[in-house]
Amino acid sequence: MAPSGKRQDRPADALALLRHEHDRIRQLFAQFAGLRGIEDEDERKAALVDEICYELALHAIVEEELFYPLLRAAAEDDEMMDEAEVEHAGVRELISQLEVMYPGDDHFEATVAVLAEEVEHHVAIEESDMFDTARSSGIDLAALGRRMQARRRELDEDLNEAPDVIDAMEPHA
Q: How confident is the model at residue 37 (pLDDT cuts 50, 70, 90)?
């Protein structure tokens, strides 16, 4: 389900947009980490995990549909892109596990912690190697950013109107 509250306007450059989303996801994980081990916060934990999974799903779809194909073509670094896609698959698997778990279940908090670690590892590589490659590739990052923003808004609207319309667990190309 979509996070509550209004979204702020996002930066137009693709890399700034992705960094903004990474920061938002990091903040959500930090909020969850602050609640670990606190039993009477199950409702808040569940809401945070829902929001984390939602944000990650939209972020991954936009990357897989728009950013990764352009970067793969421009960079000609199949190994870097293959690793990113495998990491996305791992994140999707953890999200699918969390979708059927609840706070208090065995391994719930551990699964969120592992998801946070995998996402942080992926983001670190993305913000260094992939962003450097994108900057030097000649990709029009401003135009890509606008396309990514438009796609993100479209996905957000589709999911709010018909939550079953998009399968966030499937890779997107």
A: confident
Alpha-helical regions (H) of the chain: 14-33, 42-62, 68-75, 78-98, 108-125, 131-137, 141-161
3-state secondary structure of 108: helix
Give the residue with greater pLDDT, 84 vs 4: 84
Q: 124, 92 in Cβ contact below 8 A? A: no
* Cβ pair 84, 68 in contact under 8 A: yes
DSSP state of 39: G
Long-range contacts formed by 100-103: CB under 8 A, 24+ apart: 102/42, 102/46, 103/41, 103/42, 103/43, 103/45, 103/46, 103/49
Is the pLDDT score of 1 beyond 80? no
